[in-house]
Amino acid sequence: MAKLHFNYSTMNAGKSTLLLQAAHNYRERGMEVHLLTAALDHRAGEGRIGSRIGLGQPADMFAPDDDLFTRLSDRLDRGPLACIFVDEAQFLTEAQVWQLARVVDDLNVPVMAYGLRVDFRGRLFPGSAALLALADTLREIRTICHCGRKATMVIRQDAAGNVVTDGAQVQIGGNETYVSLCRKHWRDAMGDDRPA
To answer: Which of 82, 109, 114, 144 is 20 to 30 A away from residue 189, measured at CA?
Structure first.
């Protein structure tokens, strides 16, 4: 039975690497997969999923107005898929998460979504919130803070390395922009001295 999976973490935990490895495992066994990534993220190149360790694969892109159920249903008309992989899943809309759930339920194809849980302000991304609510399985991919504790938050930095505490939820960037931290060090960096 197909399931909707959400694999989440902070920045730099290896989400894209794990996605590419899983897709490779399917293909190595002669199974066809379909890769999707957010159209607004071009860090690895347009229409490409790339990891910090140098792995990469071409992927179809999705934008907020795309009907993913229709697109994937049309793709299935051309041949079976063993699995659908979605990178940068935090950029999905709530409606698109429901569309992916329909792919799982109505078309019986598993969907593996990989993305961030929260933004630099500690707030859920809309796609992540919907995936946390609807996914059949949730898997946290762990990375660590500079102190050695599990990193669950991320800060955004400007070009001079100063912590940014406000701004648009979405700003594409990598190690030069984002740093993963444990909650305590995130609170320290954000100037959050409110009692717990």
So the answer is: 114
Containing domain of residue 76, as a range? 4-142
What gap in Å lies between CA 27 and CA 41, rounded to an integer? 25
Name the strand (E) or helix (H) holding 115. strand 111-116
List the Cα angle 35/40/44 in 5-degree steps.
60
Residues 6+ apart with CB under 8 A from 159: none
Q: Quote the longest CA-to-CA distance of the chain.
A: 57
Question: Strand, coil or helix: what is 161?
Answer: coil
pLDDT single digits (tens) 29-52 = 999 999 999 887 656 556 767 676
* Residues with catalytic function: 88
CATH number of residue 119's parent domain? 3.40.50.300
Read out DSSP for 43-85?
TT-TTEEE-TTS-EEE-EEE-TT--HHHHHHHHHTTS--SEEE
